[in-house]
Amino acid sequence: MKTFSITLGLALAATALAKTPVILSTDVGNEIDDQWAIAYLLTNPNFDVRAIVSAQAPSLPAPSAHASYEILVDEVEKRLGMAVHPPLFEGSSEPLADLQTPHPNAGVDYLIETSKQFSSSNRLTVLTIGAATDVASAILKDRSVTERIRVVAMGFRSLAEGGHEFNIENDPKAWQAILDSNVPVVIGAGDVCQRDLGMGFDHTKTFLAQRGAVGAWLWGEYQDWYFRNVKPLRKNDFSKPWIIWDIITLAYLEGMTTQNEVERPKLADDLSFQKTGSDKKITWITNVDSSRLWEDFAKRLDYYQSTHAVGLTTCPSPH
């Protein structure tokens, strides 16, 4: 029995070590892709999720990080049915004003404190799938955090076109601060997402509509977004797909991408990339194995729902 206990303990320790420790910064509610990314992140046992921080976006009601926080809580606690879950924080609702002044908040402080458990050889992964305000604020508040974290982000239009993309435009100074620092950076840009992560209307219905309460909810979110923003008005044209942009960050962590090392650029005020002549590098994702990604996403959703009570609880009708 003692030998069995030791063996089991070592196995559990190895499993824990294999998990990727992650903090997520998300502008959930701005579109539909964040909801997919959060569901995949929290139903996937390969991730050790330390916290989730809501991010600002001008498309959400003010204060936008609070609006995003409320949607985040709804997904985690009601849609995924998590009574126990990683800490959820409301981030900053305003972009950085300059490259010196962070926006302090509880999420920024938690990121900094959590990073102190890590090192340059064992980094905490910080995913940013919205404005990078809170990640940059952590760097500006404590420069040593760059020695303990890496940033994996969905952002930028392409390597050639630079930062003319929603997440970057929502806080350019945040990305100037990140790129000017020494923190390791991985980028999943819009052009790769558009090519590899489009989900058509019929495909999404087949993929999600009958996939339990969580799948049905994600399908409903997709439909609402599609009819408001994608489908042509007064035309039954469902040919255009929508892009599940943010999940590229998780595909990278799961080894479902290819990538190259490229020169670390400087982000100009006009959001173009400027060469620096430095030997510093960043990682640029070039391809996503979407078939493998969607297959794994489905498997994670199915297993999670088979082992957890999910879906909104409805109150009985009054008599």
Write the SSE topology.
Blueprint (H helix, E strand, L loop, with lengths): L1 H17 L1 E7 L6 H11 L3 E8 L9 H16 L8 E3 L15 H10 L8 E5 L4 H9 L7 E6 L11 H4 L2 H9 L4 E4 L1 H7 L1 E2 L1 H8 L3 H18 L12 E2 L4 H6 L3 E7 L2 E2 L5 E2 L6 E8 L1 H18 L12
Parallel strand pairs: 1-2, 1-4, 2-3, 4-5, 5-6, 6-12
Antiparallel strand pairs: 7-8, 9-12, 10-11
List keywords for this structure.
319 residues; alpha/beta; Inosine-uridine Nucleoside N-ribohydrolase, Chain A; eight-stranded mixed β-sheet; 12 strands; disordered N terminus; disordered C terminus
What order do the SSEs take from the amino end to the carboxyl end, as H and E?
A: HEHEHEHEHEHHEHEHHEHEEEEH
What's the total count of β strands? 12
Number of helix segments? Answer: 12
Q: Tell me, what is the CATH class of one domain?
A: Alpha Beta
- What is the residue-averaged pLDDT? 93
Helix percent band: 40-55%
Radius of gyration: 20 Å
Unreliable residue runs: 1-16, 313-319
Structural notes for this entry:
This protein has 319 residues and is of the alpha/beta class. It has a domain at 17-196 and 246-287: Inosine-uridine Nucleoside N-ribohydrolase, Chain A (Alpha-Beta Complex). The protein contains twelve helices and twelve strands. The strands form three sheets. An eight-stranded mixed beta sheet has the order 3-2-1-4-5-6-12-9, sandwiched between helices. Helix 5 links the parallel strand 4 (124-128) and strand 5. Helix 4 (106-115) crosses helix 5 (133-141) and helix 9 runs antiparallel to helix 10.
